[in-house]
Design brief:
Number of helices: 2
Radius of gyration: 27 Å
Low-confidence stretches: 16-25, 27-43
Distance between the termini: 68 Å
Strand content: 35-45%
Oligomer: single chain
Number of strands: 8
C-alpha cells in the first residue's frame, strides 16, 4: 500500500513538473524570439534624416491619385549603387490650385528597393470621400464636386539596410 501511494505521488509530481516546465519554456522561447526580432530590426537598419543625403540616395516622383481612388501612389527610385532602401518617411502637403491647404500628413512608404531600381508604392489616401484628384491624374468624369490638387513631398527619414 505504501508503494502504491509513493508511486501515485511520484506520477503526480512528475506530471506537475513536466507541465510547469513546458509552460515556462514556451513563454521563454516566445520572449527570446521576440527579443531577437526586435534586436534585428533595431540594428539591421540605418536611418538617415539629413535632407541633402536623402536627396542624393532616393527620388520620389510620378505621384498619382484619381478621383475614384482610395489610394495614392508614387514611384520610389534608389539612386545608390550599394544600399538597399527599406522605407522612406515623407511629409505630404496637399493644396488646391489657388494655394489653399487641404491636408498635410506624414506617411511611411514601405518598399524594398535594391540599388539602382525603382518600385511602385501605394498607400491609403487622405481623401476618403473621393472629392479630390491630383492635377496630373485627370478625373474620368470631371464634375462640379471634384477638385484638383497639387502635392509637395518632402523626405524626412530614409531607412536603408545596413
Amino acid at each position: 500500500m505504501a508503494r502504491r501511494a509513493i508511486f501515485i505521488l511520484l506520477v503526480v509530481f512528475a506530471s506537475l513538473t513536466v507541465t510547469s516546465q513546458n509552460t515556462h519554456r514556451r513563454g521563454a522561447k516566445r520572449t527570446a524570439v521576440a527579443a531577437q526580432t526586435t534586436a534585428a530590426v533595431a540594428y539591421a537598419n540605418d536611418t538617415i534624416a539629413d535632407a541633402d543625403v536623402i536627396g542624393a540616395k532616393v527620388r520620389v516622383d510620378d505621384f498619382r491619385k484619381a478621383t475614384v481612388s482610395r489610394v495614392e501612389s508614387v514611384m520610389l527610385t534608389n539612386l545608390t549603387k550599394t544600399d538597399t532602401i527599406l522605407g522612406l518617411e515623407v511629409d505630404i502637403d496637399y493644396r488646391t490650385e489657388d494655394g489653399r491647404q487641404l491636408n498635410r500628413r506624414t506617411v511611411t512608404l514601405r518598399a524594398t528597393v535594391p540599388p539602382g531600381e525603382t518600385r511602385f508604392v501605394s498607400f491609403n489616401s487622405f481623401d476618403r470621400q473621393q472629392l479630390f484628384y491630383y492635377r496630373g491624374t485627370p478625373p474620368a468624369k470631371p464634375t462640379a464636386r471634384t477638385t484638383p490638387f497639387d502635392v509637395t513631398i518632402t523626405p524626412l527619414r530614409l531607412i536603408i539596410a545596413k
